[in-house]
Design brief:
Helix content is 64%, strand content 0%. The protein contains 4 helices and no strands. Helix 1 packs across helix 2. The radius of gyration is 25 Å and the shape is elongated.
Amino acid sequence: MDSLIDNAEDVKELRLSGVFRNLLGSDENLANLFNELGVDLPTKWKTWLAEAYNTHFSTPWTIIAFFAALQILILTFIQTLFTIHPR
């Protein structure tokens, strides 16, 4: 709903078309309510990052293994590029 409502004119248009009824008083109050609705919620990527860290990186060895595997993948990619395009 926040993408539909930015200001009081949007609320007025939706109210006149019968999408919802405004029982808060003014259209500006309802627009402010929808614009501030998700401000305090954590973003999805922060939640996903914390969940992934707690699930997959619970010990230092898993972090070391992850970066070692990442380094191997990067070096393999570079080796493949030099094989395809030799100097």
